[in-house]
Automatic annotation (TrEMBL):
Coiled coil: none annotated. It comes from Candidatus Sphingobacterium stercoripullorum. InterPro entries: Alkaline_phosphatase_core_sf, OpgB/LTA_synthase_biosynth, Sulfatase_N. Its main location: membrane. This is LTA synthase family protein.
Length: 426
């Protein structure tokens, strides 16, 4: 059972009352063992000293977004498993996502962004709350904890925006529904809002139908709005109700085909949206929830390329001189929040783990974490550390000195020590 099923209100007290108290008591007993930090390496003073230069992105910002427009609408598209290997402009083969390639020429592409982890539950938290992965744990599972995070929708709610979240599957999955409703989303539209005959895939409604509903609703949405859609068709088992562009002989073929499909239906959405009154005043943001081993099947969980994802800002609000530009700074998925807010002239202090990529003092590096592996990636070195055995599992640049490697390793350990400490505090 998932407590998210009981959530129906944007007011936490109403949702808490709706959850069965006996069930909640026994769940608390089961999860009470989440008390120990597996990443304890240093005293707090040293942790803060190691991380100070990481989070000092500077006071000034380079703007690619027009600064003469008020009440900007934001459409945030979170792309399921949309690894960089699906995009030719990044590391992928040509022809898988032709429309995304087209939007790149009219937008601003951040081509060195890395996901927080390798799962959707962690990606959603990284995107909306800018909170890093917690190793083997996942804060979205614990409603009392994730309610203490701040979320992007709350920023816009405080500004009087109308907020909504769309997902073609069951929004109770991974507690998405409870998270969204408790973090400023006024409306969650999911599988239950479609006819049973429209639920044709293992995960729910195909992306094409979800985007059709999305456009219809946005055309009636009060402005300004902050709205997000999380795609699902590019998830295992990679099902399509039609032609597989790259065949279906292998999982890699099916993966590329579902990515091609999602790319095509988003293009249909964009082209129709251009006819709407709200389009010219809307910023579109595309980011993946995580990377994937497919289609290349060559990146282990120790390799940062496993987490390499696209981040694209698109729309008529991009300054003309910036359209088609690439920002080649190594960054984290968690840095989206601060970067977006600073472009809109808004403060980002509620997201302490997020860094403004366009800040004048931004330090290019990224962190990633899975069940056992934590990693750090810079422009000159990448180090992965297997926390289950307490040893380095991969070093990319063999010419780096031992002292330089140790410095990076200490920063990596300090980062996840502080992340997990904060997770426990919540």
């Amino acid at each position: 059972l998932n407590p998210s099923i009981s959530y129906y209100s944007t007011h936490p007290i109403n949702n808490h009352a709706a959850v069965n108290t006996h069930w909640a008591f026994f769940k608390e007993l089961i999860t009470r063992n989440v008390k120990k930090n597996p990443f304890l390496y240093f005293q707090d003073e040293k942790v803060n000293k190691l991380l100070a230069p990481v989070f000092n992105a500077g006071d000034s910002t380079t703007y690619f977004l027009r600064q003469d427009v008020e009440d900007i609408n934001v459409v945030l598209i979170v792309l399921e498993s949309f690894t960089a290997d699906l995009v030719h402009a990044l590391t992928g083969e040509k022809g898988i996502t032709p429309n995304f390639e087209k939007w790149i020429k009219q937008g601003v592409l951040f081509d060195e962004v890395y996901a927080a982890s390798d799962r959707s539950d962690k990606g959603i938290i990284a995107v909306f709350s800018a909170f890093p992965s917690q190793g083997d744990e996942s804060i979205i599972k614990y409603i009392p904890k994730h309610e203490k995070l701040f979320g992007l929708p709350q920023v816009f709610e405080d500004l009087g925006y109308s907020n909504s979240f769309y997902y073609g599957g069951q929004s109770e999955f991974y507690n998405f529904k409870s998270y969204m409703l408790s973090h400023g989303m006024h409306r969650v539209v999911d599988q239950k809002d479609f006819k049973p005959s429209e639920v044709k895939s293992s995960w729910g409604v195909y992306d094409g139908l979800t985007f059709q509903r999305y456009l219809k609703d946005l055309n009636r949405e009060p402005t300004p709005f902050f709205s997000s859609l999380f795609t699902l068709s590019n998830h295992e088992p990679f099902e399509l109700d039609g032609v597989y562009k790259f065949g279906e002989k292998t999982n890699a073929d099916k993966f590329k085909s579902t990515a091609y499909y999602t790319d095509s239906v988003i293009n249909d959405f964009i082209e129709e949206a251009k006819k709407s009154s709200w389009y010219d005043n809307t910023l579109f943001v595309f980011i993946a929830d995580h990377g994937h081993r497919l289609p290349a099947s060559k990146w282990s969980v120790n390799n940062p390329e496993r987490y390499h994802i696209p981040l694209l800002f698109y729309g008529n609000l991009i300054e003309e001189q910036w359209k088609g530009k690439r920002v080649s700074k190594i960054a984290n998925q968690t840095d989206l929040a601060a970067t977006l807010l600073h472009q809109m002239g808004l403060p980002s202090h509620d997201f302490p783990w997020s860094r403004n990529i366009m800040g004048n003092n931004y330090k290019p590096l990224a962190f990633f974490a899975t069940k056992d592996v934590i990693g750090i990636h810079t422009d000159r070195q990448s180090i992965s550390f297997d926390s289950s055995i307490g040893k380095i599992s991969e070093v990319k640049n063999k010419t780096f000195t031992e002292s330089k490697n140790q410095e990076l390793l200490d920063t990596l350990k300090a980062y996840y020590q502080k992340v997990y400490t904060q997770f426990l505090v919540y």
